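LAB NOTEBOOK - FOLDING QUEUE
OPERATOR: T.R.
BATCH SIZE: 2
PURPOSE: Compare the predicted structure-token outputs for two unrelated chains run back to back under identical settings.
PRIORITY: normal
REVIEWER: second-year student, initials M.K.

ITEM 1
FIELD SEQUENCE / FIELD STRUCTURE:
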Amino acid sequence: MSKASQANGKVLLSTKDLSGIIVDTVGFKKDVIEQRPDDIKAFVAAMSDAMDYWKQNTDESNQIMAKGLKIDLAEFTGTVPGLKFLYKEDNKKLFGDGKGDIYVSTKNAIDFYMEQKLIDNAPKPEDVLNSTFVGGL
């Protein structure tokens, strides 16, 4: 958004206007889930720990993330207010033991992909989501 607003164009809509419209997720192939569940559990726990660390060490974390993204600190921190970060309890609520809002969002995405003919068969949300690892936090 910061670069777009500096260009010779006009920002029509931003994530500040439609919170939650863009969702970043992490996914694993089914065979990885089946063959390496302990690694996935460790990954999910590490992500949760990283979010907790950021909450407790915001300035240091912002510097680390800006450096990792190869942008200056002001640009990185300028994006933060337009984003919603999910912590452990947020993720548990989002998955809702197999009945949370992520299932509705996934169904909407599947419907969109079908409409656009990007996929030929519509999977069920529960076929592509797995709350096991979030629930284990």
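ITEM 2
FIELD SEQUENCE / FIELD STRUCTURE:
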Amino acid sequence: MSDVAAIDGLVDRYKELKKEIGKVIVGQEKVVDEIIISVFSGGHALLIGVPGLAKTLMVNTIATVLGLDFKRIQFTPDLMPSDILGSEILDENRNFKFLKGPIFSNIILADEINRTPPKTQAALLEAMQEKSVTIAGNHYELSKPYFVLATQNPIEQEGTYPLPEAQLDRFMFAINLDYPTHEEEVAIVKATTTDHKVTLRSLFSAKEIEDYQQLLRRIPVADNVIEYTVSLVGKTRPNADNIPQVVKDYIDWGAGPRASQNLILAAKTHAALQGKYSPDIENVKAVATGILRHRLIKNYKADAEGLTIEKIIAQLL
């Protein structure tokens, strides 16, 4: 099958995928879109939202419909690296045997990742980057496709270990999850307070998702789109030349080259899901907020004036 025909086929399957997810998840269209773009681009995502917004249900539903294995790890202050990676034990014949931890799955939900100490965070983030782990000198490849969705509660910061900037940079998207609208909440209450069970179909297989990830990487990108993307990321750096006044005044630290790479990959996927064979500047703009949100560090002046990162990104766009 040609790449053009494969992209046409993906558009239809994406519509079917959204319809199937919609049986369980009411609203949250943009959140679902950004998670799906992350998966097909081969990236990871950080979900930021208060408790009770069905983050776990959303990830579980998407994993089921994509036909992928799913494991949830609840991050707590006493969680050790071996609790997520696995450990070696002595079997009945006095031989060492490796027991795999929950990280050996296609989709990992790292619930409240900022509640666990840096040592355990680092173990997960190394696995995210390398797609493999080394335990007791032995190297183990992780399942493919491999995707980490971490959650953070933005309100309660007591007793937490904020992710360092270098580790935040490993996430392709930072996705803000808001409260549902009045109509959506009415629909949620109606759907979840009866004994009606929804049966979900698996529409993909792990192999198909890997094939689509490779297909999306093969999509050509015009030079002017790459130039625009690199210029956009360059504008976020306070020490660069010809930067906008808003960045000079309110940003302490800008985005690195990984942001440019992720913008192009996500723009390719965003374009393909709309039936386009090459991304344009509009596709870059459509994914920019989620990709830049966690990579810009604003200063105390921005906080004092109530200026959010989203408003600053909107001005750059």
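REVIEWER COMMENT (ITEM 2): The mean pLDDT is 85.
FOLLOW-UP: none requested
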